[in-house]
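The authors assume throughout that readers already know how a fold can be written as discrete tokens. Each protein is reduced to its one-letter sequence and a matching series of backbone shape codes. I therefore recommend that a typical entry be quoted early in the introduction. For illustration, here is how one protein appears when written out as sequence plus structure tokens:
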Amino acid sequence: MAEYEVDDDLVLLFARSEGIPRLGIYNLNNDKKKYVPFSYIENPERVLKIKVGRSSKEYRVSDLMEGVSSIIKDSSEAIKLNALVWRGVQVLGDLVHIPRSARSDADLNLIAENKKDTLWYAYTPKRGKWRVYPCFAFADAENAVMSSMLEEGKPWPAPALSVENGALPSTMRNTPIVKELAHVNPARWSEFMLPVSKAMFLGFSDWSSGGEHLFGDALWKYAPTENYRSAETISAISSAGRLFMNRILAYLRLWPLLELVKSEQTHDAVKELGERGMKKRERFEMTAPNLDDKQFRVTRLMDETTSAVAFGIEPTTRLPGEKDRILTLTGDVWETCLDACSLGGERDPQYACNSVISAVETKNWYRRIVECLTWTPKADDEE
């Protein structure tokens, strides 16, 4: 659909048949082409090597960005990208606000794993009003809205949203409280959806297992159809994008706290944190889908004097030069995370720890895709 000549040896192509488009890497020297998802450019440290005669030639991702930006722009009209992206925004808005529900007090206290992927947990007794508990940390700009719309009452000790009798909606997206949240804090509730939607249609990471792009492919399948927001379609897209939505929901749930999480790298996270006087609390394994399903060992430690909490994140199989990561939170921030991730039920430190790590990774991913999608050439004096 489009091509860009980087130099005499390399041409970049934009190609699509079904599902997400592909970035074509065309080596003019040997007339060979390789097609990769556009998520290829997410890692700014990646180096592309192509064979030139008996030697090889290297390109940094920054060397490719002008070409990538050009072929995306040149292909947008042919694939009707703008119209699709807008439909994707609508779908994301529906998905983000899908509520989960329980009918008994027992289900409210011990929440099933398959019901934790929500920002709205509803209590829907057979008779009487149903109530909805907001499962996210409030930003300062949101406090006035939440205090004006939430009220005390069973089954939660904290305020929740009361609603007259009727069926629980398939999404809370069009309710007054969500509309007000988007009005007072658009950066959290609406503005982020546009670049995320565009990234999905172009084939940036959606954290599907095995390097697939199940969510992006599902959007390409359903977004062009007339019933792209029907309950059946939203359910199908949600199933395809389960891992992606879990990450997005973790990011939104903890949004106002993420800038308060300190991130650093070290050669031995647990040893260094121990030298800082922190004591181990738990250790578990987790998978990072954005790193080719790589396994990590996570150790949660606490400073018993200050109540600060840290996560030491160690790769189980270490690549050359790869370091451990440390995330550090103050005691107050960790307490807020525990509450936000409890969904009004019992606190689950391991689930909260996973959520914090996923939210931080998603924040970093979001910043990177925005950089990629808004790339512009640097002025000569910035080189």
About this structure: The chain has three domains: 2-79, 95-185, 253-372.
